[in-house]
């Protein structure tokens, strides 16, 4: 009996120790605070004290309202909160509390009634985790979201108004509303797009105005061209007859030019042969000049050797004199070597003098031959130029004869083509009128847009035609208005 009671006590102590270990584990990771059923603080662990900024002595015996906003603590919901806990119902949620000094704290907490031996609630234990940073960050993000929505609303309203004006054709509609962040790029991109469209349409209006004037000018020019084409056909027949006579004359000139070219080619051949002989003589004289120069160099070397030999013989004589009787024989040899060196130097000087004289005479001959070669070369160049000119004249005459024959044939074909052109000009006139009509319609469609600039006027091209067009019109009028012969002559010279 006693042992059973002892075992029961041991088991109870073990369960109590296990329970204490579990509470200690919870206390290490969470904030824990105990209340009585009236909401009076009984105890709190260090985590909660650190979170709320109080000491245990400051809060023990105080009511739970210490951590509450006064307005919330006086509300009916707060009274109902403690009635539920006294009824044994636990509560878990996110709670906003006030730490020491009024600092805001957010807790993810549960209020847990603890039951006594009689099965009725005896106290309340609160387990909490500090989520203040998370909640504040969420609040900051929410504020940013609301601000972004407001900015987006401003941008959308401004964009809607601008697009409404744009749909009505007002290309001056811009967004001037003050926006922030990414909305600045949207505003700037829209304004840039509208500005680009405005500039493009303004340029299109100017181009259309010019096109309207040009279409009318083309129509008028086509009518004039039709009349001038008929007159041109009559003038072509007269031109063909004149070309036959010119062709015969050019053929005779070509024959004479070929004969002159043959004679010039013979003279060039003889001049080239004479020039070649002179070039060979010049080359031979140059060879003699180079050989004389080489011999002079060799004589210089011999003279240098004789000088060095004489110097060595002199030194040898000095050394033999120093040797006394033993060097007497060597002194005789040195004296003979010295005499030989002197005779070699004298002979080298005589040969050098002869070579110098010969080189001067050779140089004189080379100069005269070079002058002769230069003269013959100049003659050969002039003869070659004459040959080239005569050959070119002959070739040109032949080409002119051939070309005139082709021109004669082409003029006959031009008569037929001119008649065809007259029919094509009538079609062009009709197309120009159609283009003018379409251009007027396009101008009416585009002019509905407001660009903020004065609409360009239609250019009157007939009043200020471009210089090339005016020049061509004057030329054609001269050809068609009684000056056919003069115009034909000018055309032949241009050809």
Helix content: over 70%
Strand order of the largest sheet: 2-1-5-4-3
CATH topology label of the largest domain: Helix Hairpins
What do the pLDDT scores average to? 76
One letter per element, helices H and strands E, the order comes to: HEEHHHHEEEHHHHH
Low-confidence stretches: 457-467, 482-495
Cα-to-Cα separation, first versus last residue: 147 Å
What is the molecular shape? flat
CATH class type of the largest domain: Mainly Alpha
The portion of residues forming beta strands comes to 5-15%
- Please give the largest β-sheet: 5 strands, antiparallel
| Discrete helix count | 10
Q: How would you describe the oligomerization state of the chains in this entry?
A: single chain
Provide the domain count. Answer: 2
Q: Please give the CATH architecture of the largest domain.
A: Orthogonal Bundle
Number of strands: 5
* Radius of gyration based on Cα positions: 62 Å
The chain-level structural class is alpha+beta
How would you describe this structure to a colleague?
There is one protein chain. Helix 6 crosses helix 7 (182-323) and helix 9 crosses helix 10. The protein has two domains: 24-130, PAS domain (Beta-Lactamase), CATH 3.30.450.20; 201-464, Helix Hairpins (Orthogonal Bundle). The protein has 495 residues and is α+β, with helices and mostly antiparallel strands. The chain has helices at 2-29, 46-52, 56-59, 70-73, 76-86, 132-167, 182-323, 328-446, 467-480, 484-494, and strands at 31-35, 41-44, 91-98, 104-115, 121-130. Strands 2-1-5-4-3 form a five-stranded antiparallel beta sheet, sandwiched between helices.
């Amino acid at each position: 009996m006693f042992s059973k009671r002892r075992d029961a006590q041991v088991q109870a102590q073990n369960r109590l120790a296990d329970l204490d270990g579990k509470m200690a584990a919870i206390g290490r990771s969470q904030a824990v605070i105990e209340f009585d059923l009236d909401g009076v603080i009984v105890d709190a662990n260090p985590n909660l004290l650190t979170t709320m900024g109080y000491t245990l002595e400051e809060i023990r015996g105080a009511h739970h309202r210490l951590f509450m906003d006064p307005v919330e603590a006086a509300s009916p919901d707060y009274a109902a909160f403690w009635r539920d806990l006294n009824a044994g119902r636990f509560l878990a949620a996110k709670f906003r509390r006030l730490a020491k000094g009024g600092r805001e704290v957010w807790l993810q907490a549960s209020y847990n009634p603890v039951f006594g031996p009689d099965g009725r609630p005896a106290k309340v234990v609160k387990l909490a985790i500090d989520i203040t940073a998370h909640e504040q960050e969420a609040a900051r993000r929410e504020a940013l979201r609301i601000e972004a929505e407001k900015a987006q609303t401003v941008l959308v309203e401004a964009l809607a108004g601008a697009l409404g004006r744009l749909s009505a054709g007002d290309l001056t509609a811009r967004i001037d509303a003050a926006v922030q962040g990414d909305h600045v790029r949207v505003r700037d991109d829209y304004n840039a797009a509208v500005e680009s469209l405005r500039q493009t349409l303004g340029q299109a209006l100017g181009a259309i105005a010019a096109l309207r004037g040009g279409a009318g000018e083309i129509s008028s020019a086509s009518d004039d061209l039709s009349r001038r084409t008929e007159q041109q056909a009559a003038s072509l027949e007269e031109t063909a007859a004149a070309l036959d006579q010119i062709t015969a004359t050019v053929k005779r000139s070509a024959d004479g030019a070929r004969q002159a070219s043959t004679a010039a080619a013979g003279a060039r051949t003889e001049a080239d042969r004479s020039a070649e002989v002179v070039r060979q003589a010049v080359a031979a004289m140059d060879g003699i000049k180079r050989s004389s120069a080489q011999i002079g160099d060799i004589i210089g070397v011999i003279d240098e050797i004789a000088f060095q030999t004489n110097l060595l013989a002199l030194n040898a004589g000095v050394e033999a004199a120093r040797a006394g009787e033993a060097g007497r024989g060597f002194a005789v040899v040195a004296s003979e070597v010295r005499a030989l060196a002197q005779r070699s130097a004298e002979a080298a000087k005589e040969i050098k003098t002869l070579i110098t004289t010969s080189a001067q005479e050779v140089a004189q001959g080379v100069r005269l031959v070079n002058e002769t070669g230069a003269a013959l070369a100049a003659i050969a160049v002039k003869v070659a130029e004459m040959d080239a000119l005569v050959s070119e004249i002959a070739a040109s005459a032949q080409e002119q004869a051939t070309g005139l024959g082709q021109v004669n044939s082409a003029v006959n074909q031009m008569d037929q083509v001119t008649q065809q052109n007259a029919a094509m000009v009538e079609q062009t006139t009709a197309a120009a009128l159609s283009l003018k009509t379409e251009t007027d319609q396009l101008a009416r469609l585009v002019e509905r847009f407001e660009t903020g600039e004065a609409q360009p006027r239609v250019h009157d091209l007939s009043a200020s035609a471009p210089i090339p067009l005016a020049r061509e019109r004057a030329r054609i009028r001269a050809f068609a208005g009684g000056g056919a012969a003069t115009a034909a002559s000018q055309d032949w010279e241009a050809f």
